[in-house]
Amino acid sequence: MDLNSLYSVAGKTVLITGGVGGIGRMLSEGFAAAGARVWITGRKPDALAEAVAQLGAGGAFVRGIVADLGTAEGVAVIVAELTAAERRLDVLVNNAGQTWGAPLEEFPARAWSPVMTVNVQAPFMLAQGLLPLLEAAASDESPARIINIGSVYAETTEVMKAYSYTASKAAIHQLTRVMAHDLAARRILCNAIAPGLFPSKMTGFVLKDAAARNALLKSIPLGRTGTPDDIAGLAMFLCSRAGSYITGAIIPIDGGILIAH
């Protein structure tokens, strides 16, 4: 058994949505460092260009696509640009996400559509549009992969008051299972990673507040936030030969949140 090849993602073509910051940036850094061909998406051209330059500074293959996944047009741009540039896609990581927080009595109607569009509809439409590229990469020996970034907070009620966000993440977990079933015969694996507390733009406002941060850390059995190595390591395992018999799984990476609540 060759352990180097067992866990390798070198040479694979990977698309990571929302790859500029947060968990998306952690995943992008991991795949790029491991020798994958990495494409990332972002809404802001300047931020995307800066991320591409930084990620590719050591000679890694990193390219960017400017697109807003809150619109059907944005999804179409990603599909068109990637199809024009690549003949195959080994890994699609649906990471881009949106949240909205407010107390129950104040939670607005306008907080539902944009969150569900980015967190549920866009991942489905991307998988649909990129299916020919995924099929071109898929084989019995090396299946193509779809990884949806869900959330541990889709599985527990111990969560900040982000009602549309938690509902959307529960939806992407179920969509992952259904897609895994439908795509298995095409040798495309579909799994979801359910992160707990990781530093990101979404969690920044909480982590900057010392009292809130300490309260959150006390609720996590391992007593810390997740790191880039944690999330990238799991994703690359799922996309390597070592993870080629796993599909339809929802894998928490939460420091023990689920066993505590």
Overview of this protein structure:
Helices cover 45% and strands 14% of the residues. It has 261 residues and is an alpha/beta fold. The model has no long low-confidence stretch (mean pLDDT 93).
Topology of this protein?
Blueprint: H1 3-6, E1 13-16, H2 22-33, E2 37-42, H3 45-55, E3 62-66, H4 72-85, E4 91-94, H5 113-129, H6 131-137, E5 144-149, H7 163-183, E6 188-195, H8 201-207, H9 210-218, H10 228-239, E7 250-253, H11 257-260
Parallel strand pairs: 1-2, 1-4, 2-3, 4-5, 5-6, 6-7
Helix pairs in contact: 2-10, 4-5, 5-7
The strand count comes to 7
Major sheet: 7 strands, parallel
Q: Helical proportion?
A: 40-55%
**And the CATH topology?**
Rossmann fold
CATH architecture: 3-Layer(aba) Sandwich
Give the N-terminus to C-terminus distance in angstroms.
40 Å
In terms of DSSP E residues, the strand content is 5-15%
CATH class division: Alpha Beta
Task: Describe the global form.
Answer: globular
Structural class: alpha/beta
Task: Give the CATH superfamily.
Answer: NAD(P)-binding Rossmann-like Domain
Compute the number of structural domains.
Answer: 1
Unreliable runs: none
Strand order within the widest beta sheet: 3-2-1-4-5-6-7
Order of helices and strands: HEHEHEHEHHEHEHHHEH
Based on the model shown, name its key terms.
single chain, 261 residues, alpha/beta, Rossmann fold, seven-stranded parallel sheet, 7 strands, 14% strand
Short overview:
By secondary structure, the protein is α/β, with parallel strands linked by helices.
